[in-house]
Structures are given as structure tokens and as C-alpha cells.
Design goal:
The chain is mostly beta strands and about 70 residues long. About 0% of the residues lie in helices and about 10% in strands. It has a domain at about 30-60. The chain has a two-stranded antiparallel ribbon with strand order 1-2. It is globular, with a radius of gyration of 12 Å. About 10% of the residues are buried.
């Protein structure tokens, strides 16, 4: 699933929903090709907003099954 096309000035494909934190995605560290949702206020965005991270990092996951 593609969440974003292009760089910081890119766009969600076909007008898909997106909720990036201000200035994100920014690829601050080489290889920030995965997205996470911030769950507390902080420098990586406000609660509920997305941030780009390196894919080798481990993050908690929530999945909804139909």
C-alpha cells in the first residue's frame, strides 16, 4: 500500500486520506520510508498525526480485522 508519492511536497495517491504532522514526511534520517502515528504530543507531531521513520525501527502495532 502506497501512503505517499514524492517528497515533503508530494501528495497522497488518488486523493487518499493523509494526516501528516507539520513538516512531515521529511526523511530526516536516510531511509525514513515507513509511517507511524504519534500517540502523545511531542516534536514528532501531535497526537493522531503521522510521522515518517526508518523501517528498521520497532513500533507498537494495532490492526483492525474485518
Amino acid at each position: 500500500m502506497v501512503l505517499w508519492e514524492g517528497n515533503r511536497n508530494g501528495k497522497a495517491p488518488d486523493g487518499a486520506y493523509e494526516n501528516w504532522a507539520s513538516g512531515r514526511p521529511n526523511n530526516a534520517s536516510t531511509g525514513e520510508d515507513c509511517a507511524v502515528m504519534a500517540f502523545e504530543d511531542g516534536s514528532d507531531g501531535d497526537e493522531g498525526e503521522w510521522n515518517d521513520v526508518r523501517c528498521i525501527e520497532t513500533w507498537p502495532v494495532i490492526c483492525e480485522v474485518p
